[in-house]
Amino acid sequence: MPDAVRIGPKLVGHGLPVLVIAEIGINHNGELELAKRLIDLAVDAGCDAVKFQKRTPELCVPDAYRNVVRETPWGMMSYLDYRRRVEFGREEYQEIDRYCQRKGILWFVSCWDVESVDFMAQFDTPCFKVASACLTDKGLLTKFRATGRPVVLSTGMSTMEEVDEAVEQLGHDNLIMTHCTSTYPCPPEELNLRMIQTLRKRFNCPVGYSGHEVGLSPTLAAVALGACLVERHVTLDRAMWGSDQAASVERQGMMRLVRDIRLIEVAMGDGVKRIYDSEAQARLRLRKSDDS
């Protein structure tokens, strides 16, 4: 079986308990108190970790989009100013770090640029996440590898050749991959869940699933197909403003998702045929004896 990877106190790998991540991302809309409420949601649901996104807007916003004006809850502003508005800085992440420690939940981020990796180095997060959009950024991948921390590589919007190159850049040590389709929300016919098995066979490393669909059943199917890690965006209300809210899961849905993942883990068993003690009386009562 592929080697397990340690994320904080938890081992992540095939046959081990699924690491359930509540992706807060930028669903906090730049509000620290909203971020805390989303952390509370994840804790109450039984998630193992929460994840945020960290960008340096001046590096990540393409020149062609910087001055594009868009409507936001804070009025009309340029796309660059909007990205600055929803970005957390040092004080906010220090408070997030303290809050997650107090709540007993892991936290980490997907860094979208080298400066953001340097920024996050001040925090003792258990791993880094490579967003699908960054899979072909070789300089950023080299930076992630140099940290020595485990890396979760998301593979949306990528060809298999690009994935091959990214894995070569990152190396196989301490690598977890996640299958996903980078459409928000993603239609069922484009989820392609069997890619979980394809990636495991091709790269011989732990493979998880990052879901952007509406509903829970495809994510549960991903667990049954062997996903060792599950990531879903969370929100207080799918009608809230923000590009990721519609593909997110609300409180009750996240509680059901974690509950059903744990049920599936137990139900999968070990694949060894046996007669259970609970079957013994029915066997005596219902099956004809050999000499009848």
With helices defined by DSSP (H or I, 4 residues minimum), what is the helix count?
Answer: 12
How helical, in percent, are the residues?
Answer: 25-40%
How many distinct domains? 1
- What is the CATH class designation? Alpha Beta
| Mean pLDDT across residues | 95
- Superfamily at the CATH H level? Aldolase class I
Number of strands: 12
Examine the coordinates and then state which fold CATH places here, giving the name of the CATH topology: TIM Barrel
CATH architecture: Alpha-Beta Barrel
Beta-strand percentage? 15-25%
Provide the low-confidence segments as ranges: none
Radius of gyration, in Å, reads 21 Å
Largest sheet entry: 8 strands, parallel, barrel
Secondary structural class:
alpha/beta
Shape: globular
- Major sheet: arrangement of strands: 3-4-7-8-9-10-11-12
Oligomeric state, counting identical vs distinct chains: single chain
**Helix-strand topology string:** EEEHEHHEEHHEHEHEHEHEHEHH
Distance between the amino and carboxyl termini: 46 Å
Structure notes:
With 292 residues, this protein is of the alpha/beta class. The chain has a single domain, classed as TIM Barrel. Helices cover 39% and strands 19% of the residues. It has helices at 32-45, 57-60, 63-66, 79-85, 90-103, 114-120, 138-147, 160-170, 195-203, 217-224, 251-268, 280-286; strands at 5-7, 10-12, 19-25, 49-54, 69-72, 75-78, 106-111, 128-130, 151-154, 175-179, 207-211, 229-233. Helix 10 (217-224) packs parallel to helix 11. The radius of gyration is 21 Å and the shape is globular. It starts with a strand and ends in a 6-residue tail after the last helix. The model has no long low-confidence stretch (mean pLDDT 95).
